[in-house]
Design a protein that fits this description.
Layout lengths: L3 H19 L3 E13 L4 E10 L2 E6 L5 E7 L4 E4 L1 E6 L7 H7 L2 E7 L7 H10 L3 E7 L19 H10 L4 E7 L2 H4 L3 H12 L6 E4 L7 H5 L7 E3 L18 H8 L3 E2 L11 H9 L23 H10 L4 H7 L2 H4 L19 E14 L5 E15 L2 E2 L4
Parallel strand pairs: 1-4, 1-5, 6-7, 7-8, 8-9, 9-10, 10-11, 11-12
Antiparallel strand pairs: 1-2, 2-3, 5-13, 13-14, 14-15
Helix pairs in contact: 4-6, 10-11
The structure holds zinc ion (ZN).
Zinc ion (ZN) binds next to loops.
């Protein structure tokens, strides 16, 4: 039962709604009738998304009013633009527009560049159509084919800090690759130096794990709240599970104190199905998904970000949680993405329209292991800052 006061309030709200409809709001774009999945506000429902001035202005069951353009999204998923926190998109100016076609409206290049070559990566980030940011490699060389940390003198704190100062607008963290084929026995010292470089700027450190010289426990003990572990399911030696397949307690302890764990698909040695399976059976899922993408990824096990996300549908993760890990969870890792990864009213109108197809789809791990799943997300269309992204 409404009392009189509530009734008056409801009536005037209805009047205001009618009056605003009479003004026939004009939008730049309405994405009509899609299944809107926006984990940032726990929304999963058929909705229209109205956009004006580059921002989301309404998400409603039926948005009235004219729009300059309309996208018919019936039968498709309308999600916040995807944010990929481990890519190598800054290696060339061709990278970011390619990633955009896969629904990626925000990316982080994770350590392609070090002090010697970060300026060119930063320039690519600044000229990217979508928001692009970079992590500076603690090795002055950046990612180097034979391994950039075999000579520990390449991990030069002063040079890394200089790189950050020169590119404060786009450098949002420090990267260290700790595999034995990259760092040999220098992994812990390289990580200490990465922390030292990042500390005065209050930036996080992202580490790449897998087949390291030092045990996981020693590596994790150096990480702080907000630091990120990528390639979380890298197999032994020195992964997150022991020889009996049990998750090391140190891993859960690190998560409890705020260390983040990222999938980081990549190409070689970064994950195998057995490690994923053992970990998720013990309830250990990644906080974020990422591709470790580069311009060659179409022809590797990455293919595209929605393909990487689909691997976790195969392991039984609910679709809304899969999308959360590629949107709002990723946005929360770095303050640069504060208002992204959401379709909430007022947010930049970055949207990934995806198609969820049923069938039989084959997925690859880093060792040519295949598993087949019954669902696969495909990129259908991207909207960036309220504008449709056209395929060349
Ligand atoms: Zn990488």
């Amino acid at each position: 039962m409404m009392n009189r006061r509530q009734f008056v309030g409801a009536a005037s709200a209805a009047l205001i709604a009618r009056a605003s409809k009479a003004r026939a709001a004009v939008y730049d774009l309405i994405i009509k009738g899609g299944r809107v999945i926006d984990p940032s506000v726990a929304l999963d429902a058929v909705r229209d998304v109205a956009i004006a001035g580059g921002s989301i202005v309404a998400v409603d069951a039926n948005v009235a009013g004219d729009a300059t353009q309309t996208i018919d999204a019936r039968g498709k998923i309308v999600a916040p633009g995807l944010i990929d926190i481990h890519t190598h998109a800054a290696r060339s100016k061709e990278g970011p527009p390619m990633a955009l076609l896969d629904g990626i409206t925000g990316w982080v290049d994770a350590g392609s560049g070090g002090a010697d070559n970060i300026d060119q990566m930063a320039a690519v980030a600044r000229s990217s159509p979508q928001i692009g940011r970079v992590l500076v490699n603690i090795s002055r060389l950046g990612v180097a084919p034979g391994g950039e940390l075999h000579d520990i003198n390449l991990a030069n704190v002063a040079l890394a800090q200089g790189a950050i100062v020169r590119n404060r607008d786009v450098v949002i963290g420090v990267k260290a690759r700790l595999s034995e084929n990259v760092a040999g026995p220098n992994d812990l010292e390289a990580l200490r130096r990465a922390q030292e470089a990042a500390a005065p700027f209050n930036l996080p450190v992202m580490i790449h794990i897998g087949q390291s010289y030092s045990p996981m426990r020693a590596i994790l003990s150096l990480l702080k709240r907000g630091d990120i572990v990528t390639h979380v399911y890298a197999p032994a030696p020195n992964g997150i599970i022991d020889d009996q397949g049990r998750l090391y307690p140190d891993v859960q302890a690190a998560r409890r104190r705020g260390v983040l764990f990222d999938f980081g698909n990549g190409v070689a040695d970064h994950f195998d199905w057995a490690t994923v399976e053992r970990s998720v059976k013990q309830g250990f899922w990644p906080d974020t998904f990422s591709t470790d993408w580069n311009v060659m990824s179409k022809t590797t096990g990455v293919v595209d970000f929605p393909n990487v996300m689909s691997k976790f549908l195969m392991f039984g993760m609910p679709l809304t949680e899969v999308i959360a890990r590629a949107t709002v969870n990723a946005a929360r890792v770095f303050p640069s993405f504060d208002n992204r990864g959401t379709l909430n009213v007022g947010a930049p109108a970055d949207v990934a329209i995806l198609e969820l197809r049923e069938g039989s789809f084959e997925f690859l791990d880093s060792y040519k292991g295949t598993r087949s799943g019954r669902q696969r997300l495909f990129p259908a269309e991207t909207v960036l800052a309220g504008k449709r992204v056209l395929r060349a």
